[in-house]
Amino acid sequence: MKRVAIVGCGFVADLYMRSFAAHPEIEVVSCYDRDEARLEAFSKYWNVTAAADLETVFTEIADTGLILNLTNPRSHYDVNKGALEAGCHVFCEKPLAMSYEDAQSLHAMARARGLQLGSAPSSVLGEAAQTLAKAVRSGDYGTPRLVYAELDDGFIPQAPLEDWKSESGAPWPYVDEFQIGCTLEHAGYYLSWLIAMFGAVTRVNAVSADILPDKRDVADAAPDFSVAVLEFQDGPLVRLSCSIAAPHDHRMRVVTDRGVLAVKKAWDNAAPVKFYKRMRLRRRLLESPLAKRIRLTAKETHPKLPRKGAAAMNFALGPAEMLEAIGTNQDSRIGGDFALHLTEVTLAIQNAGLGGGAYLPKSTCAKMEPMPWAH
């Protein structure tokens, strides 16, 4: 049995617990939250042992499993550092830390101690992402020339945020969400796919801004809009946008010299991947309205979850892959260099400001090895 201990029992922790139910090979052995009421509600709802303190969680899981860090992003560095110092492998919600320097120090610590340190999001390990990556690798649909990736969520400040609660009763932390910002929260969903397909980002050209003055009177709000043009080690130019203002749009479109590969739902592991072939009709050039759906040859990929709220995602894919890597003494696909590079590029976009300008990442990573069922 593979073992996981959860630190942080807020809104997202319930999404992970729903996902672990589809992975009977993984046991959640304990949980901890500094908010005693939240810890009690979560542990009772999910029937998970509540730990007395962080040290107990670390001691219990060291060398035998994985710490799942689901705390507020501002606490990620401290919890990750404490877990690594205690000899624990760590899978952390995004980002690894709030600064590249802190993320780099965690990366170095994990490497020096022979520990795995990985980062959400896990969707890059899902069927939709792996199908798109295989289509790009194959060359059957043309050479990628340009990518548009959209992570716009609608005018979120006007949504009924106070009514959003998790299964065990945790409120959606909209104050934290506004203070952390939609780029840190969401850019990784497609940025991880892009890095997996095209390798390291070599240049970030970005602008970020706080364009909505009234977000429930939340002070110190982070940018609620960003747009980046990314240059890759081996790939096309990419435009990546994030906002909580523009109408909901979660499409990725890979423009090739033969047509367009498209996915419409970033947060659905089973989202269809389609190819719209370019064609000439009389004097017009257009993409065919009749798309070809691209499928993997494997009949079984990974456990999928029904839609819950805004997503149909298996949040346990990352922890499950990392536990498998630990068990076979291999590097996790979404750990190590990959996690550090994803964090650095996301922070560069978030911190670009209105002045924009170019940022040259200091870290690098290789393209992702496909999942076994995606070859």
Q: Could you characterize the architecture of this molecule?
A:
The protein is 31% helix and 23% strand. The two termini are 27 Å apart. With 375 residues, the chain is of the alpha/beta class. The model has no long low-confidence stretch (mean pLDDT 96). It has two domains: 2-119, Rossmann fold (3-Layer(aba) Sandwich), CATH 3.40.50.720; 124-300 and 332-374, 2-Layer Sandwich (Dihydrodipicolinate Reductase, domain 2), CATH 3.30.360. β3 (65-69), α4 and β4 (89-92) form a beta-alpha-beta unit.
Poorly predicted runs of 5 or more residues:
none
Fold-level CATH name of the largest domain: Dihydrodipicolinate Reductase, domain 2
Order of helices and strands: EHEHHEHEHEHEHHEEEEEEEEHHE
Radius of gyration: 20 Å
Tell me the name of the CATH class of the largest domain: Alpha Beta
Structural class: alpha/beta
Brief summary of the model shown:
The chain has 375 residues and is α/β, with parallel strands linked by helices. It has helices at residues 11-20, 36-46, 54-61, 76-85, 100-113, 127-138, 174-180, 182-198, 317-327, 336-350, and strands at residues 2-7, 26-32, 65-69, 89-92, 117-119, 144-152, 201-209, 225-232, 237-243, 252-256, 259-263, 273-281, 284-287, 292-294, 358-359.
